[in-house]
Design goal:
Elements (H helix, E strand, L loop, with lengths): L6 H12 L5 H5 L6 H13 L3 H14 L4 H16 L3 H14 L6 H13 L10 H16 L4 H30 L3 H14 L6 H15 L2 H14 L4 H17 L9 H12 L2
Helix pairs in contact: 3-4, 3-5, 4-5, 5-6, 6-7, 7-8, 7-9, 8-9, 9-10, 10-11, 11-12, 11-13, 12-13
């Protein structure tokens, strides 16, 4: 959209003020701004990156011309301007009101997507509360559910995968903390949650290894062996599998004399698993 200069508007305002003492009747005869003019003024502020002022100006379109087509457009633009200003709560309130009152509008898919992005950009590091991450995941899935064949759904899927990875990372951090402080059962619950509910994330190999480590710590070797086997089957090249293998060898050495090493590492590994699997 062509950006108009604000200077003529300022001049006009000053002239209007200077004329106030001359004739109140003359002011009363001046036509009010149209909805389109109000919208364009708000858009000018947005183009100048005055996002907070733009959001207020877009809201003014709806306030002064609530039944115009421009008022509908202004609600989405107000939400977008607030998002650009990183005023996420204001943006969310505006956009959620829009999708409630205009569920079939052509801009509704974008409004749902922008709601999800507002939550997504508030995701904090794994050391902090993850409520925004949970909200982002829910909103991203809502975009995919409602608008599966849109570009918004495709981008939401990518961001959903990253969000799941983030949540899994939080579970891993808490699990490691419990494991370090000998709260082994609590650690196991966290690692199992990653393995069972975040199967597509990058944290699964480590979670399986940590389960091997935790069960060996408890002396429950059968469970340790089961998770080591799953790790070896699904992630044989992972360094976490190598660490689990070393833990299993070390534990087995405590229970039986050291067998003569094989010249072939793969043969040695196979022989080891054969010796401990019932």
């Amino acid at each position: 959209m062509h950006k108009r200069s604000l200077f003529p508007l300022v001049v006009a305002a000053l002239l209007a003020l200077s004329a106030c003492g001359d004739s109140e009747d003359e002011n009363l005869t001046q036509p009010p701004d149209t909805a389109e003019n109000l919208y364009n003024e708000a858009r000018d502020l947005y183009d100048q990156k005055k996002f907070k002022d733009a959001a207020k100006a877009f809201d003014e379109v709806e306030r002064q011309r609530p039944y115009s087509e421009w008022a509908v457009h202004s609600q989405v633009m107000s939400g977008y301007a607030s998002y650009q200003a990183e005023e996420y709560e204001t943006a969310l309130a505006t956009l959620e009101r829009f999708v409630k009152f205009y569920p079939s509008n052509e801009s509704t898919p974008y409004a749902y997507y922008l709601i999800a992005i507002c939550y997504y950009e508030q995701i904090s590091d794994v050391g902090r509360d993850q409520q925004a991450t949970q909200d982002a995941l829910k909103a991203l899935r809502e975009v995919r559910r409602r608008f599966p064949d849109t570009e918004y759904a495709r981008d939401a899927k990518l961001k959903e995968d990253l969000t799941l990875d983030h949540l899994a990372g939080k579970e891993m951090e808490v699990g490691r903390y419990y494991l370090r402080h000998d709260d082994t059962l609590a650690a196991i619950n966290r690692f199992r949650n990653v393995v069972e509910n975040y199967q597509t994330t990058s944290h699964v190999p480590e979670a399986l290894h940590r389960l091997v480590e935790a069960y060996l710590k408890l002396g429950v070797n059968e469970e340790a062996l089961r998770y080591a086997s799953v790790l070896g089957t699904n992630f044989p090249a992972s360094p976490w599998y190598k660490d689990s293998y070393k833990l299993m060898v070390k534990d087995a050495a405590k229970a039986q004399p050291q067998a003569e090493a094989s010249a072939d590492p793969k043969e040695e590994e196979s022989s080891f698993w054969d010796s401990i699997i019932p």
